[in-house]
Design goal:
Shape: globular
Helix content: 25-40%
Radius of gyration: 21 Å
Distance between the termini: 54 Å
Length: 321
C-alpha cells in the first residue's frame, strides 16, 4: 500500500515538474512546430489516418461554422501559474501551439451537462446531441494513471473488489447491495455518516489487482479506476456508462471490453459466478480491454490527435475581434 502511494506521488511530481518547466519555454517555439507536427498526418498509412480521424471527429463533433460569444478566452491570456490545476497544465500543452489571437471556451472539472456554446471539457454525457462538449485529455495525471499488474489472472483471488468514496446515492446503493455478499470485498473509504455501515480500510491499486474481478462505478462523472482496470489482468465489471471522456467510454462494448451489469445490480452475482466458471471468456475480454487502452499511451499520436481536435475547433468557430 505504501509503495503504491509513493509511486503515484512520484507520478504526480513528474507531471507537475515537466508541465511547469514546459510553460517557461516561449510559445513561439511551439507555434513554429505546429505545421510540421500536423504534416506528420499526411505521412501515415491510410488505415492509421482513418483511425486518427475517427477519434478526432468523435471528440469534436462540430460540423457547422458557429460564432462564439465575446466571453471566449483569447489564447494569449491563458497562462500557467504554479498553483494552477492539472487541467491547466494539460490544456496548455495543446493551446501553446496555436496563435495568440485564437479564442475558445473551456470548462474544467467534472462536467455532466452540455454547454450552450462549443466548449473544451474533460467529460460529457454520452448522447447524440453533445457536440458543444469538445473533449480533450484533461486531468490525465489522475485519469490515465496505471500500474504494472504483477499477477496472472489464474492466480488472483476469485472475488470482486471495490474501494472508494461513496458520496453519491448510486455508489451507496452499490455498497448496500453487495457489501455483505461473500463473493465481494467492497467498502467505502470516506467518512460520511451515510456510509458508516459499509466502511472498510483503504486498499491500494496494487492490492485490488490481487483480485480477478474489479468493479468500476461512475462518481460525479466517469469512473477514475476504469483505465487502470482495463490495463490490468483483472476483469472489469460495470454498469453501462452515462458519461465519457478522452477514453471514449461511449465506444466500449459490453461483453467485449467489460462485463456489463444491470443498473439495479440484480444480475451481479450471476455474472460473477458465470465468469468464475468460464475463465477463457474472462481472459478474452481482458485481452480486448488491454488492446483498447494501449492506443492512449502513444505520446506522439495522442499529441497529434489533440492538435487536430484543437484545429478542428478553430476551423468550425468564428469570433469577433
Amino acid at each position: 500500500m505504501k509503495s503504491g502511494k509513493n509511486a503515484y506521488r512520484a507520478h504526480k511530481f513528474m507531471f507537475y515538474t515537466t508541465g511547469l518547466l514546459g510553460s517557461l519555454v516561449p510559445r513561439i517555439f511551439f507555434r513554429h512546430q505546429l505545421k510540421p507536427l500536423l504534416d506528420e498526418f499526411d505521412t501515415l498509412p491510410s488505415a492509421e489516418k482513418e483511425a486518427i480521424m475517427e477519434r478526432v471527429e468523435y471528440y469534436n463533433k462540430l460540423d457547422d461554422s458557429t460564432e462564439i460569444s465575446s466571453e471566449a478566452v483569447r489564447n494569449k491570456r491563458f497562462r500557467i501559474r504554479a498553483n494552477k490545476s492539472t487541467y491547466h497544465l494539460d490544456f496548455y500543452k495543446v493551446a501553446r501551439y496555436f496563435p495568440k489571437s485564437s479564442a475558445y471556451h473551456y470548462r474544467f472539472g467534472d462536467k455532466t451537462f452540455i454547454p450552450d456554446e462549443p466548449t473544451f471539457v474533460k467529460s460529457r454525457p454520452i448522447s447524440d446531441n453533445n457536440k458543444n462538449s469538445v473533449l480533450l485529455k484533461l486531468d490525465s495525471v489522475r485519469h490515465f494513471y496505471t500500474v504494472n499488474d504483477p499477477y496472472s489472472y489464474k492466480n488472483k483471488k476469485d472475488i470482486l473488489v471495490w474501494r472508494g468514496a461513496a458520496h453519491q446515492p448510486h455508489r451507496q446503493h452499490f455498497l448496500a447491495h453487495c457489501h455483505d455478499m461473500d463473493i465481494c470485498d467492497v467498502g467505502a473509504t470516506d467518512n460520511k455518516v451515510e456510509t458508516t455501515a459499509y466502511r472498510k480500510p483503504f486498499m491500494s491499486i496494487e492490492q485490488q489487482l490481487e483480485h480477478k474481478f474489479i468493479f468500476s462505478i461512475e462518481g460525479n462523472d466517469v469512473a477514475t479506476n476504469l483505465k487502470w482496470i482495463m490495463a490490468s489482468n483483472s476483469l472489469c465489471f460495470m454498469k453501462q456508462p452515462i458519461y465519457e471522456t478522452w477514453f471514449m467510454e461511449g465506444k466500449l462494448v459490453p461483453g467485449h471490453h467489460y462485463v456489463e451489469v444491470s443498473d439495479d445490480l440484480s444480475d451481479l452475482k450471476e455474472k460473477i459466478d458465470y465468469y468464475r466458471a468460464h475463465p477463457e471468456e474472462a481472459l478474452n475480454i481482458i485481452n480486448n480491454a488491454n488492446n483498447y487502452i494501449n492506443k492512449f499511451y502513444d505520446h506522439r499520436r495522442e499529441r497529434l490527435i489533440s492538435l487536430l481536435v484543437f484545429e478542428r475547433y478553430f476551423s468550425r468557430t468564428t469570433h469577433s475581434e
